Batch of 2 targets.
Target 1
Amino acid sequence: MNSEVEKLMFLQTQSITKEFGKLRAVNQVSLDVKQGDIHAIIGPNGAGKSTYFNLVTGYHRATEGKVLFKGKDITHLPAFHRCKLGITRSFQITSIFPKLTVYESVLMGLLAHRGVTLNFLSSAKKYFNEEVWKILEDVGLADQAHALGESISHGDKKRLELAITLGTEPEILLLDEPTCGMSPEETETTMIFIRKLVEDKRLTILFTEHDMSVVFGIAKRISVLHQGTLIADGTPEEVRNSEEVQRVYLGGVA
Ligand code: ADP
Ligand code: MG
């Protein structure tokens, strides 16, 4: 496959649908995410953004439709298998190890992904030391390496979560409201890190975010969900100018 075709066939959903009882949380969403893009999914609360992420990562089983990754049908693969393929998510609610240090948390993430058992912990520590420091530097947490997870600021916790996620060697990172609860300064530094990760590691990012200045500041492509249905998909300019998006969602904020 030539590289342009590969980029186009990176992550696709085809008419993906999720029903919870009578509620269609995600309704026939067909979407392409291109390799190397920073792609935002936006929409009001309850639009189906988190559910869509769960369908892509395998935390929910689709009622209908397909998920394809690099042309391969992964609709029925469990989450851990998709993670091994390089599809990784961070959660809307921060999930870190409160009683481990920042350094240990990242190490644990690496070990879990590589399947290292605790019997080999001491030799594994030496082996992975450099990699852990590299990740901590990538996300700007090296100076907090020895602080306990529970003691760091909310913004640093979200960054730690990102660091743990990077240990799984993702090709595409799904970030559900990565800057939720952060101060404007923390938001800005986090977004700079995310942009750097895309450039340095050639990652692809699919993210959701409430803050429209963050979305329009960083996304190359934006898809808009409304009541589970995709109502717009395009460049920030195209989405900003969409009448339907203005009517049901943006209404003057972007
Ligand atoms: P968003 O992330 O855009 O705010 P969600 O994907 O969380 O939206 O939710 C979409 C809709 O699906 C909402 O109406 C929500 O209440 C419902 N929903 C989400 N998860 C579940 C679940 N596990 N069981 C039942 N309903 C759910
Ligand atoms: Mg959500």
Target 2
Amino acid sequence: MMTTTSTIPFDIERIRADFPILDQEINGRKLVYFDNAATTQKPIPVIEALMNYYRGYNANIHRGIHTLAEKATADFEASRRAVRDFLNAPSAEEIIFTSGTTMSINLVAQTYGRHFLKEGDEIIISGLEHHSNIVPWQMLAGEKGLTIRAIPVLENGELDLYTFEGMLSERTKIVAVNHASNSLGTVNPVKEIIAKAHAAGAVVLIDGAQASSHLDIDVQDLDADFYALSAHKIYGPTGLGVLYGKRALLEAMPPYMGGGEMIKEVTFEKTTYNDLPYKFEAGTPNIADVVALKAAIDYITKIGKPNIAAYEHQLLQYATEQIGQMDGIRLIGQAKEKISVLSFVLEGVHHQDIGIILDQQGIAVRTGHHCTQPVMDRFCILGTTRASFAMYNTMEEIDKLVAGLQRVKKLMA
Ligand code: PMP
């Protein structure tokens, strides 16, 4: 088994030391955390940013003129600029803070979708979508008489782009697909998908929940109309997300929620709405978590996304080789381009049993349908065991997973 660390493009021990949660025992064994696609752990600078905010300058933003309010506002807006740079968005006004990818997608469905789509229009999603990029469109479609169509998934877990082209027509108004699949790891060729959708006159939303911690994102190069992500999947806090939208679209869309902050003037007769991005940020936002998101982005940027991606690729390759060659293992999703997600089934063993036995050995993996039931249906399975890797994982931990799976096989034989 491989234990060399010579090709790691950064100091893995220093990185691990930044994530205090990793240094603990679960069921008497050192924790191996392989549930990073569900949520990533938080480095000390993120935890400290949260603490510093609450200890030092908690105040409501934008409205106050006292010193604490000004500092809180400055840090909140600095984080918005950090997100702009992270996505290479043209301007900070096109960055809207939400509660997560789920809210970002619902916002687009309920504002752009509700306002601009009419009966008979079509929305194209894909067979690889998370439920949060299916259900919001279904809710809208049910109300407005829209049709939802899904791009089929090929046997290797890639999207069938040939069929996609044939699905596009003048009825297609929205195309909503993920940049990377959370259950199979497939990286979708979103630049190509966007170009084809645009040629048919549709706007495109990209669900970047999984891609954002692994791939360099450039919304201008992609020409994405909307791009959604969650802070907790990029080493930031939970309950916070981002919606990037092109200015012209955001300006044309009605607001999502009404309340304080999103208005210019309110009388009982009429309300005028605030400028971007505040039009979409009603109420007191998640200030502390927004402030801490900048610490997460700074952390990733310092290590460098290409370095992180290169290392995660090594982890994925090694895990794919080691686990793929085990008797009775069927890998689900073998796309040519993948983020570091390995999904598999073990013949004759329920995925929940695998999860429980691995947990007894201190190994945290995800089991089930991963909020992608249509993917499971496509492969005629109930669920998978999913190991997903982050920058702080090691080859030695993958060896432990392999040993853990061997134990599962022995116990369940
Ligand atoms: N899309 C994808 C591809 C995801 O992996 C997830 C989270 N598992 C979501 C959307 C939803 O993200 P959140 O729960 O943070 O809103």
